[in-house]
Write a structure and sequence with these properties.
- It is a multi-pass membrane protein.
- InterPro entries: ABC_transp_permease, BCAA_transport_permease.
- Keywords: Amino-acid transport, Cell inner membrane, Cell membrane, Membrane, Transmembrane, Transmembrane helix, Transport.
- This is Amino-acid transmembrane ABC transporter protein.
- The structure is a single chain.
- Helix 2 packs across helix 9 and helix 5 runs antiparallel to helix 8.
- The strands form 2 sheets. The protein has a two-stranded antiparallel sheet.
- A hairpin with a 2-residue loop joins strand 2 and strand 3.
- By secondary structure, it is mainly alpha-helical.
- The chain is globular and about 60 Å long.
- It has a single domain, classed as ABC transporter involved in vitamin B12 uptake, BtuC, CATH 1.10.3470.
Length: 310
């Protein structure tokens, strides 16, 4: 039971990060039908920018409180990622909206490699230690189960952000414009919606979520490097497909489910394979799920089948 509860905690933490990143994928796909494979690298940019800000603050103001340092780091990382997300949409994707779907997909992959290369030139190839500004001293709410304050912060913070996004999309004028653009951007434009602005804001919001997810991910594992966004990005894409890409609730559910499956798989893989595999093979579970979903339920858990009208 202790192992089960510990893996449950670990799965919720990792799944919360996947859900935040998956929201960026699903928002862009819901409006443009575009899979932005460069989105995972925004996670890396957010983490590396926050790391650079923390190192600067440690040298400039060594007596600053950890909470203030973390807040200022996020205050720098989020606008940087938002600006980068807007630039990507404006320069790389806007001209390809009416192009065949393969063109923006290849462009997104190219943007991913471009961001990784620039990050490698700026911060080098080495792994960097990410400062632990939130306590990592484990608590033991249940005997044999360890939970750190940073893990609690990640789960609670992710839940609050996801709830705020749902309110934004369902209860505000901006959210109504986003839903109208997702339904039919040409008709929305005829009704007075500035679709270019709405699409750009969608990229900006998704980039802000990626920045927060990057800081959470680096804080949880204590490291950051130029390629850290690639695998979480792929897993978040898997989570978006699992939940039903284009569906916000589906992205959240898919992220949590994927995190739990990955965590339980890592905890019990040795027993399931009679010692042939260990926890280092945990990544296989995400892609097994992706394959099964695409075969048996391509629309995802909360996705709906749609038909084109003549």
């Amino acid at each position: 039971m202790e192992i089960f509860l510990q893996q449950l905690v670990n799965g919720l933490v990792v799944g919360s990060v996947y859900a935040l990143v998956a929201l960026g994928y699903t928002m862009v796909y819901g409006i443009l039908g575009l899979i932005n494979f460069a989105h995972g690298d925004l996670v890396m940019v957010g983490a590396m920018t926050a790391l650079q800000t923390m190192l600067f603050l440690m040298g400039a103001a060594p007596g600053m409180s950890p909470l203030a340092m973390l807040t200022l780091s996020l205050a720098v990382a989020i606008p940087v990622c938002m600006l980068l997300g807007y630039t990507m949409e404006r320069l790389a994707y806007r001209r390809l909206r009416n192009a065949p779907r393969l063109a923006p997909l290849i462009t997104a992959i190219g943007m991913s490699f471009l961001l990784q290369t620039i990050a490698m030139m700026l911060w080098g190839r080495n792994y960097h230690t990410f400062p632990q500004l939130v306590s990592t001293v484990p608590l033991q709410p249940v005997a044999g189960v360890f939970v750190t304050p940073i893990q609690v912060t990640i789960v609670v913070g992710s839940a609050l952000i996801m709830a705020a996004l749902i309110v934004l999309v369902t209860k505000t004028r901006l959210g109504r414009a986003m839903r109208a653009t997702a339904e039919n951007h040409r008709v929305a434009a005829l009704m007075g919606v500035d679709t270019n602005l709405i699409i750009a804001l969608t990229f900006v919001i998704g980039a802000a979520l990626a920045a927060v997810a990057g800081v959470m991910y680096a804080s949880n594992y204590g490291i950051a490097h130029y390629g850290m966004g690639f695998m979480p990005g792929l897993k978040a894409f898997t989570a978006a497909v699992l939940g039903g890409i284009g569906n916000l609730g589906g992205a959240m559910l898919g992220g949590i489910v994927l995190g739990l499956v990955e965590s339980f798989g890592a905890g019990y893989i040795e027993h399931m394979t009679f010692g042939l595999l260990n926890s280092s093979y945990q990544d296989i579970f995400a892609f097994i799920i992706l394959g099964l979903v695409l075969i048996f339920r391509p629309t995802g858990l909360l996705g709906e089948r749609v038909s084109d009208r003549a």
